[in-house]
Amino acid sequence: MINVSGEAEVAVAVRVSSLGDLARLASSAAHMMVVMPIYRFRYRGKVVYAIQTIYKDFYKLYGIPVIYYHVSEDDGLEASKAKYLLIKVDEMGEKVEITDRTKPGWIGVPLVNLESKPPFIPDDIV
Questions:
Q1: Residue 2 lies in a domain
Q2: What predicted TM-score, i.e. pTM, was given to this entire model?
């Protein structure tokens, strides 16, 4: 989103309580055959996981990007080890993992490792 002055506009940012919440949101799109990647980047000593959505029929938020995100401590994972966020729900409960490959029986959401925080994500997220 670039405004008429040439500056990037900032999206609405909503912080979720856990990485599992973000995983459920992203995996819900997989059931509709829509790929919703999770963006991963380091910012101010933390690791941020984010999903961008756009509401098309929500009153005054029509077309406004909404960023759902989770902030965690630096996990020490290099980009080569953080390629998928996996989620599985079975009789034992919900399991969420970050890994470099998918597993049978799990929903694999692609992680896109970014070099830096995109300008449309607010600076005050951490």
A1: no
A2: 0.84
